[in-house]
Amino acid sequence: MKSKNIDLPLMIVSLFLIIVVVVLLAVFPESGTDFIASLFSLITDNLGSPILWFGFLVFLYCCFMAFSRYGKIHLGEGDPEFTMFQYLSMMICAGLGSACVIWSFVEWAYYYSSPAQHIEPFSVSAAEWATAYNLFHWGFTPWAMFVVLAIPVAYGYHCRKIPALRFSSICENMIGDKPYARPLGRLVDFFFVFCVVGGLSVTLGLGIPVIATGLGRIFHFDPTFTTNVIVTLAIAALFTLSSYVGIEKGMKKLSSFNVYAAIIFILALLFTGPTKFIIKEITNGLGIMVQNYIGMSLWTDPVEQGGFPEAWTIFFYAFGIVYATLMAIFITKVSKGRTLRQMICSVMFGGGIGCFVFFGINGSFSMNLELKNQLNVVDTLLEEGNANAIIAILDETVFGIVGIIAFLVITVLFLATSLDSAAFSLSAASTKELKESENTSPLLRLFWCVTLALIPLCMNFIGAPLSTMQTITIITSLPFIVVILCMTKGLFSWFKEDGR
């Protein structure tokens, strides 16, 4: 691919802004962290209800688009490039990342010790609702957020043949010949790059300590910064290789292998653990979630104001928008030959059900350890952190060290596939023109792979908290709510023009 086809200003300005943020966090760690936390609290306190309404309406809208006549719209010519299993595998691996694997073991403990709906902590109801909230927060609504932005992007790229897979091109085409079209499109691209680089760097930064702790348990050493560097470089090498060879040869095969490995792992955990309790807990959690879906979606806790919606549901919805920016481009690229219905259902229901399995089995297994007094999961989590809690849980399986090794392999693969899809989306956004049959430059994908790996290492080195970077990313993603609404309106204008 020729260098003139690469958008250098977008890359330079976006990276400059990210570097400035990292440097400011290094120079003013406490004041910077406090300011960002206060800003996030201000936003969630004042915009929490609109964000909840947005997430709920996005879920309803995606259901409508999938099962209405618009769902029959074919994206591009010809047959799908990937089998349904490969397609679903790539969607799940791109959208889940290591976050699902890590949090599926321990997230219920937060809901159990500090439950929603004014339930008494550590009670029977708290345990039952903990699983319901696990399934809800990682279920259909977050995955609907992932795909809602992909609908207009995929239609514009595959059906209207817009010759670039980037938000600015879609926005400019929708706006038309207006003087503000190009500046607005460029602004959206800058926000996109910042969101993806910041969000995925945090994902990598959160996964590294868990992998390092697991390696320390296997080889009997205490993880250090050097360990984190080695782990980061190893993961970077894996997803860089996968990204460099392209989606067809890299991401497709890595995702399929990853899903097979994950299925074997969770089934082994199911049938060697408290099988009856796990199945009953999943069934009960699904029942509570389905029965209370609207209430859980719009619960703001207006009287007591305990902070649960802001800390969890609103946070998940906001972070879903971060991933929506990433997933929109990736989903569009791999959905050629599919219908809108297939694309939406594969992401929203395929991804949601995948999370139900992960959180249902892994979470119920670890919850049983707590309820049977085999391991105090809550205290271990709150006192020693996620990494040590997860390794302690895996020590209680019948597999011992083998189970920890399998968990680490799956975590690394999920990290690699998520970052691989991110590198492609960033390279596509940095490419001025990209036809349906074309792929982005391998060297451009390599550049973004290195960038995604270096930022969490730099933040770890200077001691800047990754949670602060995560909060910044979420704050900057909120303007994409407006982008999503405007692009959805533009989509129906396209439908009208095209006689849909």
Key structural traits:
about 500 residues; mainly alpha; about 0% strand; globular
Specify the biggest β-sheet.
none
Parts with pLDDT < 50 across at least 5 consecutive residues: none
The percent of residues in helical segments reads over 70%
Number of helices: 19
The rounded Rg comes to: 22 Å
Oligomeric description of these chains: single chain
Assign the structural class, choosing from mainly alpha, mainly beta, alpha/beta, alpha+beta, or little secondary structure.
Answer: mainly alpha
Structural notes for this entry:
80% of the residues lie in helices and 0% in strands. The protein is an all-alpha fold. Helix 6 packs parallel to helix 13 (308-334), helix 11 (275-291) crosses helix 14 (340-371) and helix 13 packs across helix 18 (466-477).
In short:
The chain has 500 residues and is mainly alpha-helical. Helices cover 80% and strands 0% of the residues.
Topology diagram in text:
Blueprint: H1 8-27, H2 29-67, H3 84-113, H4 124-137, H5 140-148, H6 150-159, H7 167-175, H8 181-219, H9 225-245, H10 247-272, H11 275-291, H12 293-298, H13 308-334, H14 340-371, H15 377-395, H16 401-429, H17 442-462, H18 466-477, H19 479-497
Helix pairs in contact: 1-2, 1-8, 2-5, 2-13, 2-14, 2-18, 3-4, 3-8, 3-10, 3-13, 3-14, 3-15, 3-16, 4-11, 4-14, 5-13, 5-14, 6-13, 6-19, 7-8, 7-19, 8-9, 8-13, 8-15, 8-16, 8-17, 8-18, 9-10, 9-16, 9-17, 10-14, 10-16, 11-14, 13-16, 13-18, 16-17
